[in-house]
Design brief:
There is one protein chain. With 199 residues, the chain is an alpha/beta fold. The chain contains seven helices and seven strands. Helix 1 (6-15) crosses helix 2 and helix 4 (89-98) crosses helix 7 (186-194).
C-alpha cells in the first residue's frame, strides 16, 4: 500500500541513496522540502542540477574546484615544494579549516585495499609521481586515514618515495585509530599537523 504520492515516494527513494540517510531521515528531508516555499525548493533543485556542470576536478591535485587549476594550486602564496597527500577531497577541506597548512595537496581518491581490488593504478598515485618528477618537492606529508587501508597506502607511498630523496612525514597520532580525517575536530587536526614526524 502506497502512503505518499508517487512523486514524494520517488524523492524519498532518491534521498536514501545519500550516505548515512536511511528511510526515516529521507522522509523527514522530503517532507521538509515539501514545506519549503516554491522559490526555495526551485533554488535547491537548480543548485543540485548545476553542481555537476560547475564543479570540476583540479588536474593538478585532484580536489574539487570551480576552476582548473584549483584556487589552492594556483595560489602563489602556497608552498609548492610541500605536498600533503590525502585520500579524499573531504580531507582537504578538513585540513584547510585548521588554517595551519600553507603547502599544496594531492588527493588520491581513495586508499589501497587489496581485499576490495583497489590497487595503485586505481588511485591517483601515478599522477603523484608525475608531480614529484616534474617539480622540486622538498617534503611529502602522508595524511592518510589512521586505519588499515590508510596505513597500507602510507607504507606503499613511503617505500616508493624514499629512494627519491624527498623528506616524508606523517601526521602525528592525536588522530583516533580507525577514524576518518574529515570527522576530526580542527584543534586535534592542527596538533596532528604540527606534530607530524618523519618516516
Amino acid at each position: 500500500m502506497r502512503y505518499y504520492p508517487e512523486s514524494l515516494e520517488k524523492l524519498i527513494s532518491e534521498l536514501q541513496k545519500l550516505p548515512s540517510v536511511g528511510s526515516k531521515t529521507a522522509q523527514r528531508i522530503a517532507l521538509h522540502i515539501l514545506r519549503m516555499s516554491e522559490e526555495d525548493a526551485k533554488i535547491l533543485g537548480r543548485t543540485i542540477s548545476e553542481i555537476k556542470d560547475r564543479i570540476v576536478y583540479c588536474s593538478t591535485c585532484g580536489s574539487i574546484a570551480d576552476k582548473d587549476p584549483c584556487r589552492i594550486c594556483s595560489d602563489p602564496r602556497r608552498n609548492q615544494k610541500l605536498i600533503c597527500v590525502v585520500e579524499e577531497t573531504d580531507d582537504v577541506l578538513a585540513l584547510e579549516k585548521t588554517g595551519m597548512f600553507k603547502g599544496v595537496y594531492h588527493v588520491l581518491m581513495g586508499a589501497l585495499s587489496p581485499l576490495y581490488g583497489v590497487g595503485p593504478e586505481d588511485l591517483r598515485i601515478p599522477q603523484l609521481f608525475q608531480r614529484l618528477n616534474n617539480r622540486d618537492v622538498e617534503e611529502i606529508i602522508l595524511a592518510t586515514n589512521p586505519n588499515s587501508s590508510g596505513q597500507a597506502t602510507a607504507i606503499y607511498l613511503q617505500n616508493k618515495i624514499k629512494p627519491m630523496g624527498i623528506k616524508i612525514t606523517q601526521l602525528a597520532y592525536g588522530l583516533p585509530m580507525g577514524g576518518d580525517i574529515d570527522y576530526v575536530d580542527e584543534v586535534t587536526l592542527s596538533k596532528a599537523l604540527e606534530g607530524r614526524r618523519e618516516i
